[in-house]
Amino acid sequence: MKKVSVLGAGMVGKAIAIDLQKSFEVTSYDINEDNLKFLSEKHGIKTKKADLSVAEEIRSAVKGSDFVVCAVPGFMGFETLKQIIKAGKNVVDISFFPEDAFELDEFAKANNVTAVVDCGVAPGMGNVICGYHNERMQMTDYKCFVGGLPFKREWPFDYKAVFSPIDVIEEYTRPARYIQNNELVVREALSEPELINFEQAGTLEAFNSDGLRSLMKTMKIPNMIEKTLRYPGTVEYMKVLRACGFFDKTEVDVKGNQIRPLDLTAKLLFPKWELKKGEKEFTVMQICCEGKENDKEIKYIYDLFDVYNDKTETTSMARTTGYTCTAVVNLLSEGLYTQKGISPPEFVGMSEKNFKFILKYLSERGIDYKMKKVILN
Predict the structure, then answer these.
(1) pLDDT over 80 at 249, yes or no
(2) Residue pair 45/17 in contact by the 8 Å Cβ criterion
(3) Structural domain range at position 286
(4) Which end is more exposed in the chain, N or C (fewer Cβ atoms within 10 Å of the end residue's Cβ)?
(5) How many whole angstroms separate alpha carbon 321 and alpha carbon 309?
(6) What does the DSSP 8-state code read for residue 276?
(7) What is the CATH number for 116?
């Protein structure tokens, strides 16, 4: 049986390890002993405590593995991925680090490594869908609306963090980039809000966030945008926190101690954002691919509405993010994707065989993307 090292045992990392255990010999690594204990005692997964901010511990963790999953927080992702590549291991990454992954492209090729990055739900599955249709039509527009939310709205935030709080805050601070009429447009995060109604989720607030990532380089599509979805009202109170400096990364002096406001904010918010055990949440996503196909103006609309799984006690965001990742690990294991270097998910989705493999894999786990084809003229 092939071996997989899963680096990071957070909410998504745990779901990944549990799913991969069906087909691989899995070892999960994390510094949090409680997370590891859950995997070992409840699921019989081999675990090992490791400080994944230390290069030597990363190299030790991946030694002897056939594949690696990088599921560490975003601020650790780039350096962790670099060490995995240095070790010569094929890897699927969901850390969503802010650096440009293509900086490691030549390094990965030199080490004969296939590294699929940003392989979650969005970025991730949205890229797979975009890559698939861009190969088969002359696309003019790509839109992605996505969010993970609790069913129960609780004051003051109407929100629960389904991944690292610091990574959530990045969505409210990192400048948002999108493509309009073939030109790069940069707006502040939380800008250009709009209300959109979804059949199963109701009315949600969409705002600009920096989710296009690799698509801006790899896809020559005139108009591309990604927006994050939250309950209405989120934009206003997050702008207030941001304007007051609560998300700043520059240290300030507090009674002789140097503290980053962001670290304090994350520490304070996490108890309020933390999902309670068994608390229900959902993921909603809509992908629109529009353009010319066989001389007709066509729009493909993919809708996803996924909910917390009671049976496996797995959050929807962990399912939709984690199982896209594990689908691609299986693709690599079966030799269906072998391109060396850095591969964003749109490269994987270009192949019809791979595209259908991933959709089938997700469907088998109850994650169904419902596609509607609209002929515009």
Answers:
(1) yes
(2) yes
(3) 125-307
(4) C
(5) 14
(6) P
(7) 3.40.50.720
